[in-house]
Every structure is written in C-alpha cells, then in structure tokens.
Write the structure tokens for this entry.
Amino acid sequence: MPDDDKNVTSSGSQSDAGVSLANCRMGETNLKALNPLVMSGKEVLPVIEGGKGVAVSTGKSSGAWAAAGGIGTFSAVNADSYDENGNMVPIEYAGKTRGDRHQELIAYGIRGGIAQAQIAHEMRNGEGRLHMNVLWEMGGAEPILEGVLEGAKGLIHGVTCGAGMPYKIAQISAHYGVHYYPIVSSARAFRALWLRSYKKTPEWLGGVVYEDPWRAGGHNGLSNSEDPLVPEDPFPRVRDLRTFMNSVGLNHVPIIMAGGVWFLRDFENWMDNPEVAPVAFQFGTRPLLTQESEISDEWKQRLTSLQDGDVSLHKFSPTGFYSSAVRNTFLEDLHQRSDRQVRYSRTAEADLHVGIPLGRRGRPIYVREDDADKVRGWLDAGYTEGMPTPDETMVFLTPESALTVKKDQIDCMGCLSQCQFSNWEQHSGTTGKRADPRSFCIQKTLQNIAHGAKVENELMFAGHNAYKFGEDPFYANGNIPTVKQLVDRIMTGD
C-alpha cells in the first residue's frame, strides 16, 4: 500500500487534523459542521460519489472526487478498458453459446475494472479514498470482484455492493485487505447480512450504505410489503438501522445516506445526531453533471430539462427489482407493450373461449370475451406478433419489435446472475422459466446510452431529485462544474 494510504485510526474516529480539513472545505457557511470521518483507513470528507454502471462512474470522475477530499467510486459493472494507444476496447462477443459469452464478459469486466482503478488512482493524487462499486446480482460478480482486486492491489480502498444480499462481500474484501460497504434499504436486511456473514469480519466493515428505495436512481431495494407509490421518511428507517448496529458494537461505523440527497442543509438535523450518527452522504445523480463525467453532452443537457415527476419507479428490469429511470421513449414503449397484454390459452376454456387467428398459419389463441376487441384492435394497428410471457399472458408487438426482442434474447451474454428477459441463470444456464418479452436486454441499452446513443431511445437511470438540475441556481446558464467545484458547493450545504 502506498505511503499516503497508511491507516490513521479505526473507522469513524476523527482527529484535529481532520477537523481542520473540514473547516477548510466548509468555507463561509452557516451549515452545522460536517466533521470528517476516517473511512477505509484515511480521514476524508464524508461525501461520497455513488457508483453507477455501466461505464458511467469512471476512473476519471471517481479520481477527481477523491482528489477533492471525499470518496470517489468507480463502477466495475462492465467497465470500459483501453488498448496501448488509449483507445477504448469495443466489447464484442465471439462465443457461440451463452456460457462462452459469459466467460468473455467476465474477462472484459476484470480488464475494465483494473483500467478504471488505475486511472482513478493516478487522478486522486494521494487524496481521499477510492472505492469500487459492484452489483451482487451482476453476472460473474465474484470472479470479477476478485480479479479486479487482485489486478489493482493497493489502488482500491473499499468495495460497495448492493442489488441483492451480498453475504460473501465481507469474506472477499477481508481476503484482499479492503473495507466493504453493503448497500441496504432496511435494518432488517442488514441484520440478516450481519448474523449470517459480517459478524465474522467486523474489522473490515467500513460503513453501511442506506439507499432510499423510493428516491434513489437505478435499481432499488423495495420489498413486497412496501408500497412503491408511498415514499417513507428515511430518518426512522436509518434510526432503526443505527439501533441495530449499536446493539452489536458497531457504534463507530458510519451509515451512509444515499438516495434523494441533494442539499446537505436538508440533512442538518442528522449531523452529530446520536440517533443516526456517525453519518456520511452519498451523491449519485449530481456527479453526472460535471466536466469529468464522461456521459454524453446530450445526456447532460437532458438532465437539465427534467421536471418533477419525470423520473419514475418501474418494474420492467430483467433483474426483477424495481428501478428508477427517466420516462422517455424507451420506458414509454415498455409501458405500452405491457398494456398490450391479455390472458390467453391455446385451447378453449371456460372463460377463455373467444378464438382469434394469429400468425402466418392463423392458429387461434383463446381470450376472454372482454379482451377480444382489444386484441383485434392491436392486430389491426400492426401489433401482429403475439409473444407469450411466463405469467400465462401474451403481449402484442410489431414484427420489427418482436424480431429485436428475439435477437436480444438469443444474443444474451449472461450479464446478470439470472435474467428474466432471456431466462439465463449463470450456474445452470437457464431459470427454467419462459423468457419474458415485457422486459429488455439491460446490458445492451446501458452500453448504448453510455457510449453516445440517443438518450430518448435507451434506459436512462436517474434519481428522483434530478429535476433539481433545472431549479438549482448552481447550474444556471448552462454551468457544468468540475468535480472539485461540485464538492466545494456541496460542503456549503447547497
């Protein structure tokens, strides 16, 4: 480990030197002092860049965030890699089978993660801390995580991990001597992780990320018992998390509030509050609009035009999780596709008895009498391809859309541990269920938007506060700040 990375004290403590750092960064502000914390072995500003894949949170943006004194996070989810001339290596799959392409994806993932870690390390100039974000339900999560940590030893100080129940993240992180930061959306989830795994390696638990499932961008941890349309106050949920953490001796371990964080002044009553502190804050959406952010100019401009309500929760993701994204043409198409859906049978049944010819051969499907006119209307409008779902329903698509869906399903490269869209499962090769045409290839669309495709035609993740880009005077007149300017602004409370 480089000399600048020597441990200071245990996680969560602070020193006089750190207080001076905070005072320097706070500047002229009436915001309650947000004291620095020792996280991942070094005293840092408790402001963290949230990791966003695919190829969105890069080494360039995370390195700049760390250089500003906070914790930068690059995504190891299908990260970009580069050749000896600095040109991005295109991700192309030659394998004839899903299993073969899955192994190629893992190799790309390891190479890309190492590349981003190296870029970030060089840019941080010995300041701050550098974390890597992985998704537990991504395809090949374990070999990619281990491969990147092995290939970038000494460059990465912590691993954040969510999208599932990452029990093994503690064991893997401890083996490589880095801190781990699980992402949870309830005290209940962390309790399960602690009792089953984390209590064995508490010394490497750097912090617990509480991600608000109603307000965060990307995939969210809503449970079946929670109403996606009724957001809950995060404070009682974080207080419950702190209560459990304190009960098992984790009083010193920071909770990192994520999802819906824009102005620190909105969280002033959290700072030094014994009910939740020590606490740090994670920003996922605001880092998108910086000079170091490598998303397209079109994407950046679209962010500034969003209105309140333009980001919505949906359940079209092939992961099966809820996720939050901008309601653009891509998402509207999925909504409309799902609306063109009816129960059906291949044989006449009691309530499914109206036969409708379908396809070239005119073989009938049988639907409810109340649905028959709807189906005929869809067929007349050009939605002539019926595609069965795993739920004994059929959706209707144009021939062109149906061909795209089928091709994307065939081209599956196993980017998830299991995928509802293609019925891929990384251990057995299949979920055993019918592939779901109501979903989409998430790898394809996220690669497209990350590399310059039209943002209206791709999945565009964003937090629910993204509309504030258009209201916040900091971004007036098209201002796009550097990462350092953004961090300095955040530390004023705004």
DSSP finds 13 helices and 18 strands in the chain. The chain has two domains: 3-305+466-491, 329-457. Confidence is low (pLDDT under 50) at residues 6-28.
